[in-house]
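TODO from last week: model MICOS complex subunit MIC10.
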Amino acid sequence: MSKPSSSEDILGQKYDRCLADLLVKSGVGFSVGVVASVIFFRRRTWPIALSTGFGAGAAYADCDRSFNPARIPGTRVLSQNEAATLQGNKSN
């Protein structure tokens, strides 16, 4: 049997996942920005900043959904009474 995880461990895992996601998505955005800057925009810097910001924004949105699942479209947060009622209906 596995022992239950503490809330601090779960929170730490979420923060670690969010930080890793931020680094990866910002890095990919930076890389795309550098390539676009060199190929299409005559070595301007704004494509690098823009695409890095897009990557960081996507990571922020994913992290926000991780910490607040009620913001995911199509999900519904139930109270304990509603959950108990649904469990009672499933067993019948």
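Done. Helices lie at 7-39, 46-67, 80-91.
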